[in-house]
C-alpha cells in the first residue's frame, strides 16, 4: 500500500486513517516512512510493539529529541521541552514525577470531586438552555479547562484570555485556533510567562493550593541535600497539565456525544443503567484515542518486528493503531461501552510515562457523562461536524447538536 504522510495534519481532517493502520498491522507493523521536511521515522502499529517501545526507556529515549512528532528547531526549544517530565528519561523523569505527584493524589481527587460536579451541572444547564450548541466550543472544552484553571489558581477574569492560548499551543496546526500557524514554541512563550505570574502570586499569597504545594515540594538527594522544582519547571508543568487535560478530556466527551447522536438506541441503554459505567469511559478512550501518538528516539542499533532500527532513528508509537489491534481486542472496530477487559493504552500503556493525570481525566469524563445521562433524553445533530486539523490529537473542531432535557 502507498505510504500516507502521517506528519501532514490535513490527513486527519477526514478522520483517523484506520484502514491504513489495519493494513500496516497486517503487513508492515514496523514501517519506515519518509518525511517531507525531516529525517523520516519508524511507525509502530501493533499493540504489543507499542507497549514494548513505551516501557523500554533505555532503548527508546524521550530526552534525546523529546516526544513530539516534529523535531525541535533549536537547542533552546529542546531545552524548554526537557523541562517537562514527559520529555525526560529516568532518573530525571523519576525525580520530577516525585516532586509533582502531590497534584494528583487520591485525596486531591476526592477534594476536587464536588467542584467537578458543580462545573458539570453548570455546563449541562447551558446545554439545555440553548436551542443549538457547538458541543466542543460551547461545552466540552470548558469542563477540563475550568477544572485545571481552578487547580492552579487562574483567576476567572483571566479565563477568556488563557483558554485561547491553550488551544493555540495545543492545536497549533489548526487555523481556527492558530490563524497565522505560528510555531508551537513561539506560542508557548506567552503561556509560560503567564505561568510564572501564577507562581509569583502563589509565592506571595501563600495558601494550601496545588501551586503552593509544588513550591514547597522537596525530595532528598543521595548526598543528604534537598532538591526542588525550579519556577521554569513548575510553569512547564502547569502548561503540560492544562494541555493534556483540556484536549484529551474535551475530545473524549465530544466523541461520546457524537456517538450518542448517531446511536440513540445505545444512549437509551446507557440512560436506563442510571449512571456512567466505568467501562464506558475506558471504551471512549480506546475508541477515540485522543492522543494519537508519541515519539521516541532510538539509543542503539537493534531489531524490532524484523526491522533494523538504528541509533538516532525517530520511532513513532501509534496509539490510534494499537488501540484497534485485532490481535489484542476482539472486534476492535465496534464501539462496546461494556467491553471487558479493556487494557487500552490511551493513557500510555504502563511504564514510566503512564499519564500522571489519568485518574483526573477519568473522573472528569465520568462525572460529566453522569450529569448528561441523568438530565438529557436525546441528542440530535444540527449540522456537519468538522474534524480537527492535527497530527497529534484526534477530535472534533466543531460538533453542532441540540439536546432535549428530561
UniProtKB/TrEMBL annotation:
Matching CDD domains: CYP142-like
InterPro entries xrefs: Cyt_P450, Cyt_P450_B, Cyt_P450_sf
Family: Belongs to the cytochrome P450 family.
UniProt protein name: Cytochrome P450
Amino acid at each position: 500500500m502507498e505510504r500516507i504522510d502521517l506528519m501532514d495534519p490535513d490527513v486527519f481532517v477526514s478522520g483517523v486513517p484506520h484502514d491504513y493502520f489495519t493494513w500496516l498491522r497486517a503487513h508492515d507493523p514496523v514501517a519506515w516512512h519518509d518525511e517531507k521536511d525531516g529525517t523520516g521515522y519508524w511507525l509502530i502499529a501493533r499493540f504489543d510493539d507499542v507497549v514494548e517501545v513505551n516501557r523500554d526507556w533505555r532503548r527508546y529515549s524521550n530526552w534525546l529529541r523529546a516526544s513530539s512528532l516534529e523535531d525541535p528547531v533549536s537547542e533552546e526549544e529542546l531545552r524548554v521541552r526537557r523541562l517537562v517530565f514527559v520529555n525526560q528519561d529516568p532518573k530525571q523523569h523519576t525525580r520530577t514525577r516525585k516532586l509533582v505527584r502531590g497534584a494528583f493524589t487520591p485525596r486531591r481527587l476526592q477534594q476536587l470531586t464536588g467542584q467537578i460536579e458543580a462545573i458539570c451541572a453548570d455546563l449541562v444547564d447551558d446545554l439545555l438552555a440553548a436551542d443549538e450548541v457547538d458541543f466542543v466550543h460551547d461545552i466540552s472544552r470548558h469542563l477540563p479547562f475550568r477544572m485545571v484553571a481552578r487547580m492552579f489558581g487562574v483567576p476567572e477574569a483571566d479565563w477568556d484570555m488563557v483558554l485561547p492560548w491553550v488551544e493555540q499551543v495545543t492545536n497549533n496546526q489548526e487555523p481556527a485556533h492558530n490563524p497565522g500557524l505560528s510555531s508551537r514554541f513561539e506560542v508557548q512563550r506567552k503561556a509560560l510567562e503567564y505561568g510564572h505570574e501564577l507562581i509569583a502570586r502563589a509565592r506571595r499569597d501563600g495558601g494550601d493550593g496545588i501551586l503552593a504545594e509544588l513550591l514547597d515540594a522537596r525530595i532528598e538527594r543521595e548526598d543528604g541535600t534537598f532538591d526542588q522544582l525550579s519556577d521554569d519547571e513548575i510553569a512547564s508543568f502547569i502548561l503540560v497539565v492544562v494541555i493534556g487535560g483540556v484536549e484529551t478530556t474535551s475530545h473524549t466527551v465530544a466523541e461520546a456525544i457524537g456517538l450518542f447522536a448517531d446511536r440513540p438506541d445505545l444512549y437509551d441503554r446507557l440512560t436506563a443503567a442510571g449512571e456512567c459505567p466505568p467501562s464506558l469511559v475506558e471504551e471512549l478512550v480506546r475508541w477515540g484515542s485522543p492522543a494519537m501518538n508519541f515519539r521516541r528516539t532510538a539509543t542503539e542499533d537493534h531489531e524490532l518486528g524484523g526491522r533494523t532500527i538504528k541509533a538516532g532513528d525517530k520511532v513513532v508509537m501509534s496509539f490510534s493503531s494499537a488501540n484497534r489491534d485485532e490481535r489484542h481486542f476482539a472486534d476492535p472496530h465496534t464501539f462496546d461501552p461494556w467491553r471487558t477487559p479493556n487494557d487500552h493504552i490511551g493513557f500510555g500503556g504502563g511504564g514510566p510515562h503512564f499519564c500522571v493525570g489519568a485518574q483526573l481525566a477519568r473522573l472528569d469524563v465520568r462525572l460529566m457523562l453522569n450529569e448528561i445521562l441523568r438530565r438529557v433524553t436525546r441528542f440530535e445533530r444540527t449540522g456537519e461536524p468538522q474534524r480537527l486539523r492535527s497530527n497529534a490529537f484526534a477530535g472534533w473542531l466543531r460538533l453542532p447538536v441540540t439536546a432535549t432535557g428530561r
